């Protein structure tokens, strides 16, 4: 395999998936597909951060329940979120009492979690692991932007952080979808500094990973039924298609973006699309994976994308680099 | 292997290590052992965060240089730091142009990075990987406590964040130290809320991982030349020894703590000891690993410890849970 990618000799299976989302996501185009829609933005908790933790715990438990009794017990957990020091994860998974590998890949985290899960299962380190992530509109706005009460205007290039959590049980066998390859991404920085246009910041990283993946595997976009990025949104999509074309790959009739699938920008005032760790995770669990399991799609390149910024780096005038991790998921 | 641990059938080797530290660390008991001592707290950069990134880049490059030309090129990078959204890492490793698995385990991060590095190498996913982490007194105080200019008084239970970065190249063969086992830790919360007494917050997690490890491997503390935690400090050490005794393990004549090794609390006014991701990483690189390589120690249990808090969780009245990851390193 090429210099950046992994081809799994004994592809691990995604035996179950769970998606728990908020009210707005439930009202969007994928609304009927999610496992659970939580109407209360606080999820009965005292803060947005605790609400996000509660979503993560619920998705984790649901995915393990859905895996059923025939699946070996989950031994390790790969999880992360957007908040400083991963507090949604630390407080969310504590009750599960599972060894935790804490991950940070911004909104690409579920890609990182799925790659490491597959590497762990094929490597024989565990018969079953859980890949998990979450985001919450309230906790993310508080972390990265303005207090909600301030009512700040959002430019059209801005995205809307998805409230929810997605969880996946990865094992040796079972189910109708398996992870056959992975291309971990590099940090890519084009020097862009606009945190309200994260799609543009992440598009070069998405291009780097997708083109690196196609180079490594010697494939064309047409070898995939879909190439699905995480949360580039409409602005980032245009840039990705242009950049990939310059690298010799025409993604136009293959590219989809979870951020553009999860909301209706006209009806829901979400501007460029959805974002957040949960955006690609719940779209995979509720929409992409079932299509693969039914055989409507035979092979998909799933490429969650992350914008690597903090309020500190942003306020100190640093650019917003991006990262994207690609996972090949196939029908079986 | 027991329910939480991994025993490596073909133990990956730590073929090289690098430690880059600040002035205060250079004046401490381990001062003469570090590869590089940087006198300028800003490392010639414009901010503490950029300074920390510069340390990380320098340690990474030095470890790869020290590995020498006979070692396969590093293919993947496992790295993380303490700052919100891992900005020290994102901006530190960008120029290396290596695929990045971003990790967060608070001050236990180098344990997480070494475990995943060993799993990746034995799993055949890469012939060489780099495990890396950093912390910086200035960026950590700004992130977690008070502006330095404020001159806040520090209680005696407080620790001092180590400025530095440690890096390790892990491969199939070479060198005189190898990773033979690992026990990833769980999030453990005893409900303590004092962010100025992180040793007490982390001691239960250290106990959980160490005792789980000894149970899983069917070993006693005497099967190790040393059991070395990350940054419990003097206060946390007392608690760990008591808790482990209740679990049936007497660690008294085996336990060391990197936080207590790196500073002289009397001379250097560091109170309970050193802390930060770099504390255990640079102590491993400069002090522990050379002892193992020379055969003075045949087998060590290295257990970096992390306190899982953010200013948000702390200010919202949440407790400070801990996590600890154990890595078995043996002379070969």
Overview of this structure, please?
With 332 residues, the first copy, chain A, is α/β, with parallel strands linked by helices. The first copy, chain A, contains 11 helices and 16 strands. Chain A has a 6-stranded mixed β-sheet with strand order 1-9-16-13-10-11, sandwiched between helices. In chain A, strands 3-2-8-6-4-5 form a 6-stranded mixed β-sheet, sandwiched between helices. In chain A, strands 7-12 form a two-stranded parallel ribbon. In chain A, helix 1 links the parallel strand 2 and strand 3. In chain A, helix 2 crosses helix 3 and helix 6 packs parallel to helix 7. The relative contact order of chain A is 0.20. At the A-B interface, helix 3, strand 5, helix 4 and helix 11 of A face helix 3, strand 5, helix 4 and helix 11 of B.
Structural class of chain A: alpha/beta
Major sheet of chain A? 6 strands, mixed
| Oligomerization status of the protein chains | homodimer
Percent of residues in helices of chain A: 25-40%
CA(first)-CA(last) distance of chain A: 22 Å
Query: What gyration radius of chain A follows from the Cα positions, in whole Å?
Result: 18 Å
Strands, helices and their partners?
2 copies of one chain form a homodimer.
Chain A: E1 6-7, E2 13-22, H1 23-26, E3 36-38, H2 48-67, E4 76-80, H3 87-93, E5 100-102, H4 109-122, E6 128-135, H5 137-144, E7 160-161, E8 164-171, E9 177-183, H6 198-217, E10 226-229, H7 233-246, E11 255-257, H8 258-262, H9 265-268, E12 274-275, H10 277-293, E13 299-303, E14 305-307, H11 311-315, E15 322-324, E16 326-331
Parallel strand pairs in A: 2-3, 4-5, 4-6, 7-12, 10-11, 10-13
Antiparallel strand pairs in A: 1-9, 2-8, 6-8, 9-16, 13-16, 14-15
Helix pairs in contact in A: 2-3, 6-7
